[in-house]
């Protein structure tokens, strides 16, 4: 692997984004553990299969670079705050049992995102902004709906996606996921610095939620939330060569 993986230092949150591989290489497939390979093989279509492979290979490679270990040898835990999971289909947020490194991954459309930090629990979300169909406006708080209605119609979809990425990042960081009603969260309006303004069903989580937008490709919106002290977000856009080598774009 070339050197697209920077070292995550205290007080930083690094976010890597990459486009899904077009052809799955043996080198990337070899990184998956038995459970990941089973899930990869279970996909019926090439597109979600490639997205899954890219997300989990990237997670393994950037994590291994921080730990100084073999990507294929990392054992991740999966934690669901709402159930114990099942032995044959573990699910939930990935974690490392013997490391303070916190991590999160997301994928949408043709893009994946991986976030790593030592600051505290982290949640990253990336969303395709060019999707079609009716917007699920019931996930917005009343003040967010009002802000959206004030925008020109041509700007509303991208603004909604920005709202949603911010909310999803928060819910992933706290571990609530979609068991919490997204409409109970109020985040800042698109065009303003990302911030969790209010959570109707609870007091501000402790440690506090720090919310940030993440630079990514123009047809996508991404956000990352970290529980704890404010930190510096460091974005990286990377790509895979045909033989599975991770590199910075040419």
UniProtKB/TrEMBL annotation:
Residues 121-224 form the 4'-phosphopantetheinyl transferase domain. It comes from the Bacteria. One of its GO terms (cellular component) is cytosol. InterPro entries: 4-PPantetheinyl_Trfase_dom, 4-PPantetheinyl_Trfase_dom_sf, P-Pant_transferase_sf. The keyword Isomerase does not apply. GO terms for biological process: lysine biosynthetic process via aminoadipic acid. Pfam families: ACPS (PF01648). GO terms for molecular function: holo-[acyl-carrier-protein] synthase activity; magnesium ion binding. Keywords: Transferase. Belongs to the P-Pant transferase superfamily. Gsp/Sfp/HetI/AcpT family. This is 4'-phosphopantetheinyl transferase.
